[in-house]
From TrEMBL, chains A, B, C:
It is found in: Cell membrane. It is a multi-pass membrane protein. Pfam families: Gly_transporter (PF03458). This is Glycine transporter domain-containing protein.
């Protein structure tokens, strides 16, 4: 691993951790609202925050990322505590949706970048970005017995796939990691933001 | 890997891909009927088509098969498109059940053969045939919030286990790959066909 | 691997198998009561008995433990048969809850010990104890379409985490494997027993 790879690893790790905190808080709030106990809040903080990346690492046969870096688990615990304290006081769901959109865009880029770093094709990398960004939320919904947002609601995983594709193509075109990340993040966040703000959704089969 | 192993790998790959297309279509039709958007159709095509084999490969610590062979993902996408176009026009569920029975038998044999090829015992191999054939459908049902067909409905995974056992014993008896596959496929398909046609089912506990 | 490691492996294997039988019976009884067929009983025996340990091994990238030791699958089959025969005759749920508490404590210690043996930190090891003890039951509930006990009910995974922590700290303090196991088991079982007997539970968010 050369110096560039180390910097890239550091930058990806930082992105991952911001996303982890955001997703942990939003998962924990679901648990708090459902009147779960602290362990339930912790589990529902864990699933969206680390579940998607765990599945990605299992499929790619990479070491599961949070085993060797305790900051991820600390972020989950911190997010669960924030959700526990503030979860019932937040009257309005909107801030959560926007924080979730930031996490979605961050995870999509981080997941795509990790798969590319492991030598996988653009197709596989973009799918892994989608898995990283949305599989954790799917697990959260399935475990909490809610209808999976992923399957019915407006553009969600689609935004992750677009962001991942933007990153992957920018990277392939020779742009820097920073610029590729910015492009991928912006694409995913903008599409998701439009879906939230303007009610965009994909068409159903007729 | 010698020449025989390569031919065996090729034949298994072909079987896998036919099964993948069939399962992707049947999963996609579930999504189309539930009025999901294209991304939901893609996810519900993916789960039964590649989910069981993915779980098999994770448990056996083999490289996940669709990472290195993009034809599988193309098949899923093709199956999802077919489901999207024709899903609401198919009035009768029966053709889907028969196509599903073909996929079940193909996956049972392919999963068993892969585990044997990796040096596992007949017991493990037959279980892996069952996992390959039925875990994907279980994931589809759990994610779609439907009652898992696997647990209550008539003979399904049982047919996969019988087919896997037929393949494994034929292989152990020294029969060729082609003949063993034919025997395993016929056993699984016939038992499943009888379950569909004559309403066969296993007894419940009294 | 030296002699001590072999003895430790043997002792852990024995613990694991007692826990497997207990969990298989309790899972099978859920299936029998829900009028599932024998295959459904087998699947619902398998999930709590081997599901948690399987997830632990996948995350730790260790060989899945029941692939190389057929006694585990025999135990699951034996437990499923016991559940099939006696499942509808047991009028009272209470013995199952106590057997489940024994399994919980055994799995928590065995899972923690395995992760420590693989060189992981106490934090990771304790989490893996919790995963081993409670993820299988979570899978059982999700697949059976029941509300996950883990998330809402009284102290369950919390007892597993406490037992794992007791084992890990005893082990770190230089106590023998036997004594550490006894301490961890006693802590987990006692806390779970108090939760059952006195209705202890964790507070909900206000």
């Amino acid at each position: 691993m050369n110096l560039d790879a180390i910097n890239l690893g550091f930058a990806l790790g930082l992105l991952d951790q911001i996303g982890v905190l955001v997703f942990a808080v939003s998962g924990g709030i679901v648990a708090v609202r459902a009147k779960m106990d602290p362990l339930g809040v912790l589990v529902l903080s864990f699933l969206p925050a680390l579940g998607g990346g765990t599945l990605r690492d299992l499929i790619l046969d990479a070491p599961v990322f949070w085993l060797s870096d305790s900051r991820y688990l600390l972020m989950v615990m911190f997010g669960a505590i924030l959700a526990w304290i503030f979860g019932t006081r937040v009257e309005d769901f909107k801030p959560i949706r926007w924080a979730d959109a930031v996490g979605l865009a961050l995870f999509a880029v981080a997941g795509t970048a990790k798969a590319i770093g492991l030598g996988h094709s653009i197709t596989i990398a973009v799918i892994m970005g989608g898995v990283t960004a949305s599989a954790g939320g799917l697990l959260r919904d399935v475990v909490a017995g809610r209808e999976p947002m992923l399957l019915k609601q407006d553009i969600y995983a689609t935004a992750a796939l677009l962001g991942g594709l933007g990153y992957a193509l920018s990277d392939r075109a020779g742009l820097s990691f920073e610029l590729s990340t910015l492009i991928g993040f912006s694409l995913a966040f903008t599409l998701r933001a439009c879906a939230i703000r303007f009610g965009w959704s994909l068409p159903q089969a007729k």
